[in-house]
Amino acid sequence: MEMKNILVEHEKFTATITINRPEKLNALNSETIKELHDCLKKLEDNDMVRTIIITGSGEKAFVAGADISEFAHFSEKEGAALARKGQELLFDFVENMKTPVIAAVNGFALGGGLELAMSCHFRIASDNAKMGLPETSLGVIPGYGGTQRLAQLVGKGRAMEMIMTAGMITADEAHRTGLVNHVVPQADLFATYMTIADKIQRNSPVAIGKAIEAVNANFKDGVNGFEVEIKNFGECFATADFKEGTTAFLEKRKAAFEGK
Ligand code: COA
Asked: Ligand 1 within 6 A of 25 CB?
């Protein structure tokens, strides 16, 4: 797969995606969004990939937002289409993946950058990271799910303030409000991720995928999360991973999950 704007590396069960437009602080243009979609789709189908990390190239930015130069002249209709297409191709897609996707926020995560980080299943940040949704300063609102996911993650009042002021918060403030799970020096970001990924990779990939779906169900209109949990819980009993996990426990050995 020919990709101009992202780099993909594999190490054991981990795939690392680096958004690679450092001269534009890794701003997301539509080509990058499409490349991310195609890449993530391929990784989701790859049994050898059990965790995915998304990060930005360089030491300054994770992603400094959607590429402003691309939509500055758009009409109302084009604006709505941009948001819809982006949400479908990337932001909702990431959130609903069965393979855990973790954002390693290594610098500015603004606008679409923070929205991408928030679509990931959770986030770790370097201590130089700055996060915000500056869209109202451009005369627009977050369009890649930011108004919804920020309120889900930090609460309505804090989300309202961040969106209205268009301000940035530090990694420590993001940690305090639950927006990111861990803050570490930039040099330790990847190692921290690998330590967490290693713990995830020891568990059943099938069960993790079903757990992601059940947790997400709470935030979907017209879906009863408790019912999804019951259904997915039951489905686990029909999997080889469940047999292996319970057998290994009873035999006092470590489980070797196949993800089936
Ligand atoms: N879209 C397009 N280009 C962007 C961008 C974005 N969201 N964010 C940064 N860039 C580009 C700049 O235009 C500049 O390009 P140039 O060298 O060709 O002029 C380059 O990236 C470097 O950015 P610069 O602004 O010079 O760096 P800085 O250190 O002075 O400021 C930021 C860093 C992040 C504070 C600043 O770039 C910024 O405010 N970016 C926009 C953030 C935003 O509003 N995002 C939401 C978009 S909806």
From this structure: yes
Domain 6-200: give its CATH code: 3.90.226.10
Q: Is the CB of 224 under 6 A from ligand 1?
A: no
- Closest residue by Cα to residue 184 from 101, 241, 126: 126
pLDDT in tens, 113-170: 999 999 999 999 999 999 999 999 999 999 999 999 999 999 999 999 999 999 999 9
Q: Which ligand 1 atom lies nearest to the CA of residue 130?
A: 34
The identity of residue 51, as a single letter, is: T
Mean pLDDT within 88-96 = 98
CA distances from 35 to 40, 51, 167 (A): 8, 19, 29
Q: Is the CB of residue 64 below 6 angstroms from any atom belonging to ligand 1? A: yes
pLDDT in tens, 19-73: 999 999 999 999 999 999 999 999 999 999 999 999 999 999 999 999 999 999 9
- Which protein residue's CA is at the shortest distance from atom 29 of ligand 1? 60
CA of 75 to the centre of ligand 1 (A): 22
The answer on pLDDT for 2 being more than 80 is no
Instruction: Quote the CA–CA distance of 224 and 94 in Å, as a whole number.
Output: 21
Ligand 1 atom showing the smallest separation from residue 69 Cα: 2
Contact 17, 53 (CB under 8 A): yes
Q: Using CB atoms within 10 Å of the CB of residue 50, give its burial: 0 to 12 exposed, 13 to 18 middle, 19+ buried.
A: buried
**From ligand 1's centre to the CA of 60, what distance in Å?**
11
Strands (E), 116-191: 122-126, 130-132, 168-170, 182-184
For the chain, domain boundaries: 6-200, 204-250
Span 169-183, average pLDDT:
98
pTM for the whole structure: 0.97
